[in-house]
Specification:
about 425 residues; Rossmann fold; 15 helices; about 15% strand; globular; 17 strands; alpha/beta; single chain
Length: about 425
């Protein structure tokens, strides 16, 4: 008999996770209360760009819907009543600098009100340390009347995937399981082994595993901030930062990340504020990590101001200038524009009075400044900001001739060969 699994949240983690279980022989119920997401998935539509064995996630979605091994519903209570395995991938967004628990708590309450004895709950969201033990567990026990570790089972199992590699990394990335009791650990491992061949590492502390997930993201945030500071040094020294980093990384114990227009997506920008929320409870400060976060948060403003300065050198003003932007997603090749620095750069330019025309073939969300083609974005533009690689081999050099006289080119992705630019173009590489 096929295992039935309910997955709360059908976003960039929940959908590929659900389909991964379906591909590995499970019946999966995906729960999403967002009407737009529910409607799209019901009709086999997703704008995610994951692939499994060269088959797109959209094709996988349609096939699993056809087979009935995956279905999406917006009634979480009904989904919980139909299964003994519930996975929560609902996120905790940051409002200002404060965690917003409403959606996560709602999912926990729905599970607690409808869970059956003997069921397993896996929390796979990135959370503030202590959330599973001190927030989720009391909700489950209070609403169900069942005790974790005896009647129902609970574990924290963080997702550790990189967007674009979800199916592969569910299978190959070592998995952490945090649970206070042995039966919860073993039941969690049974579920994880359905779609994973990798090592499983156990901890009896859910909070330790939650913290480890947050600091995985914080490490990248800090490393990116370091690369940005090094980029400013290289620029002042007349050096190519990409060459400098490439040389440094020939050392076998060195892995400096390359700079870019900022840090986006859901995980990394929120990580510091997850840890800060816990640190405030403990009355401690995190000055180095806070500095790194602020450095990365300020990058869109820096890029906008650099564009202004470069235009002024060509006798132009940012206010009233047409600015072409290549890329709206939070990283190269991605459809994900959540907390995207590219979108924030566009907003900074608009607030300074610029006329922004942005193109990204991967991002489905509409923006008032978004155009249908890169050609229309660049036509008559005073400046071009390259914020993402849109596809392999992306190079807009041949379209620069259609820009306004004396154009400014801002390359944050090390894509442009300045030797191929027309002599009247002003070029700046991050």
């Amino acid at each position: 008999m096929k295992q039935t699994i309910t997955v709360f949240g059908q976003g960039y983690v929940g959908l590929p996770l659900s389909l991964s279980f379906a591909l590995n022989g499970c019946n999966v119920i995906g729960v999403d209360t967002d009407p737009k997401v529910y409607d799209q998935l019901s009709h086999g539509i997703t704008y995610q760009t994951e692939k499994h064995q060269n088959i797109s996630i959209r094709e996988i979605l349609k096939e699993q819907l056809r087979q009935g091994t995956y279905r999406v519903i917006n009634d979480g209570a009904e989904a919980v009543r139909q299964t003994r395995t519930i996975i929560i991938t609902v996120g905790i967004p940051i409002n200002g600098e404060t965690p917003f628990y409403d959606h996560f708590d709602a999912a926990c309450r729905t599970v607690g009100e409808n869970i059956q004895a003997g069921s397993l709950v896996l929390i796979r969201s990135t959370v503030i340390p202590g959330t599973t033990e001190n927030r989720c567990k009391p909700i489950l026990e209070q609403l169900s009347g069942l005790k974790v570790g005896q009647d129902i089972f609970l574990a924290y199992v963080p997702e550790r995937i990189a967007e674009g590699k979800a199916f592969e990394e569910f299978e190959t990335m070592p998995t952490l399981i945090g649970a206070a009791d042995e039966e919860s650990r073993q039941k969690a491992a049974e579920i994880i082994r359905i779609n994973s061949k990798a090592q499983i590492i156990f901890s009896d502390s859910m909070t330790a595993v939650e913290t480890s997930k947050v600091i995985e993201n914080l490490q990248r945030d800090a490393n990116i901030a370091i690369s940005q500071e090094l980029a400013r040094f290289a620029e002042a020294s007349g050096l190519n930062i990409f060459e400098v980093i490439k040389l440094a990384n020939t050392h076998t114990r060195v892995n400096i990340l390359t700079p870019g227009p900022g840090v986006g997506g859901y995980c990394i920008p929120n990580a510091f504020y997850y840890l800060k929320a816990k640190a405030q409870e403990l009355d401690i400060e995190l000055p180095l990590l806070e500095k790194a976060r602020k450095t990365n948060e300020n990058l869109p403003k820096f890029i906008a101001e650099k564009t202004d300065a470069l235009l002024r050198l060509r006798g132009k003003k940012l206010s009233g200038a047409k600015i072409a932007v290549a890329g709206l997603a939070m990283k190269d090749y991605s459809p994900d524009d959540r907390l995207s620095p590219a979108v924030e750069i566009c907003k900074q330019l608009l607030s300074a009075g610029a006329l922004v025309s942005a193109y990204d073939s991967n991002v489905s969300n509409a923006y008032p400044f978004k155009t249908e083609t890169l050609e229309s974005a660049m036509e008559g533009a005073d400046a071009l900001l390259i914020l993402n690689r849109l596809y392999d081999g992306f190079d807009p050099t041949d379209k620069i001739q259609h820009m306004a006289p004396n154009p400014v080119i801002v390359d944050t992705r090390n894509l442009i060969d300045p030797k191929k630019l027309p002599p009247e173009a002003s070029f700046w590489k991050i």
